[in-house]
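Course assignment 3, question 2. Fill in each field.
Student: A.L.
Task: Predict the tertiary structure for the chain below.
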Amino acid sequence: MHRYCVAIATIFILLPQKVPGQLQSIVEGPSDTSVNLHAPSVTLNCIVENMSGDLFWMFERKIIPGTSIDRSLPAFPRYTIVGDPSLGEHNLQISDVSLEDDGLYECQVTPASSSEEPLRSTPARLTIRRPPVSVGINEGPLKTVSVTVASNISCTASGANPAARITWLKDGEQIEDGDKISTMPSPDPSMKLWDTKSVLLVTPALEDHGAIFECQAINAAIAEPMVQTLTLDVQHPPVVLVESIPSDIKEGISILLQCVVDANPRGVFYQWSKNIEPIPGDTNQIELSLEKSDNQAVVMCMASNSIGTSEGSLTLDVKYGPRFVDIPGETSVDEGEMAQLECSADGNPPATIKWTRIGSRATLSTMQKLQFDSVQSSDVGLYICQATVEGFDPIESYGRVDINTVPIIHYNEKHLARPGSRVQLECQTESKPEPEAIIWSWNQYELEQGTSGRFTVTEEERETGYAGVLTISKVHQSDYTEYNCTMINAMGSAEAIIVLEQQGLDFFFYIIIFVVSVALLIFILSILFMVYCKRKLQRSSASSSSTDEDEKKVKVEIIRKLSDLQLSDEERRKLARLDSRHSTRGTPSPPRYAEPVDYIPRRRDSWDDPTYRRLSIGSPTPPPYDDDDDDVDRRFSQRSSHEYMEAGDGPYKARKVSNGSYRDVQYESTLGGRRPLERDAYSNHSQYSENQGYGYFEEPRGISISGNRNGPDEKESLVHRDDVSRRSNLSMNSRNKLATNV
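Answer field:
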């Protein structure tokens, strides 16, 4: 039933729904589409709004059997109507596209009533694209022509849809015009393929010899054109070209001169000459060793064939690097005077001059002379003359301009050194004239040249001037002080103070110390954590073992005994009544442990209590347990001259006395009441505990009673079992004085 409802709902959804009051209309029809042959599928859209009639597709003005209701179109297995009918989508999908599918398509909708007109979409063309089957040049890959004689070259691209477009190229450059193009149907059964033919008219010139013509055919089915080439073989007299290997000719090298000839036919004879003077050789190449003097020499090659003679020449351009003709020097003038530096160089190509100041890239001049009209202190320095020839490394020469002045000292004000290390203190000057003396002084010491103990003074001439160097080996604590450097020249003297300070630990060492400290702290914390975890685990194991042992042991309670000597007879009778009231009523099940039947709160007697109240020996055995207090009084008050019962507290409720002997009587709860259990008066605790070391009391595993329960010759025994494996950690003295409540 559920499947039936679902099927009905599905059919209802698939059926076109008409909105009352609105007419059906084609919202979107098919559009022109192109797809390559053998494409997986192509879809033509047709969307109808408020469709109430039937929709069908037409191909080339013919109806495709099938409607929007039967969307499978069984007459055309590759055709299917797809889309969501509830949205009005009735698209035509064609699978495994073939040439037969090329043509015009349109979708139509029949009118829902006589008042409506049928709906038709705009026809759309589906083009099945196919690349050309073949592209070829009819004249073959090589065509022989004569200079200035016109000739045709034809190219055909066949079996394409749409028709291929042909383009001609000559040596890689497109030919804009000069060809004639024609298109015709291809001899194919489908009659939907096309052949294209292009004819190019060529009038070869001398430079067309060996030219390559390309025929490129392309259509919408391919991204890259299909290409066929043809080479022109143009017959002509020799064309001569002289080349050098390498082409960049420099002095001091050997070059190979080649006579490159383009001739057809090929039989060629060669002759060489240099500056009109013949050079031995009859081949197309010779070797020459060049010098600077060979610059601008003319080398000629003459080539001849059966058609004519031609010649070619090459003027040698021998390149050589720059050479200084004049170099700048040093000049020192007074401030405000004129100064000049001069520099010139030769080279091929001609050398270029550039003046710069050292430390700067700014070009000061490109002339051979660098002139200062009025020298100022800012002009003092080193200047560079650079000569450059293309293809060679530049060369440089230095000139210096100075002002005569007292020494200007350059130095570092502070130096750092560790104790025991070696340190150098420097002061230098570029001033002119040169310093006559450099003196170092500190504390009470002064040194101009040489070595004194751990101190050494030297003077160095550098490119930028003169420098005085004070070297201290194995620095002491006393060496951390101020050092004075004094320079003296013809214009005067100048001083500089340099401070030597002790160098502390580098920041890197502080990082190492911090990392080591953190690692050590983590190590110590890890050890402490491991010890803590180990102890906790041991305690947990010990607690678990102790719990297991305790579960196997019988619980005991050490209580304080209360002697019956402290109570009067009346008090003891009252306690006996209370004991009977607090006893368990009803018929209890046999206890698991040998526990007292009745309890007296906060009062329990020990087995070793020496005092008991006695009854006459002739008294009968107490009757079974009864809750009646009067019966308890009656039971414990019967007397005779030979045997009596004494009321007791604790686990033994009475004591039987006969001829000076007595035995403890305990009552056991049974299903029928209570029965007495006896202990001989002369027995001791060793009879109840076989282990003399650490004792305990456990549940009797079984109780046997022999004799007459109520007769005078009764004899009752308590069968007690001791499990040696279960014992409490009690000393012998404690064991003998405890009372069990188990």
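Instructor remarks: Residues 1-21, 554-565, 586-663, 666-742 have pLDDT under 50 and may be disordered. Residues 14-129 form a domain with the Immunoglobulin-like fold (CATH 2.60.40.10).
Grade: pending
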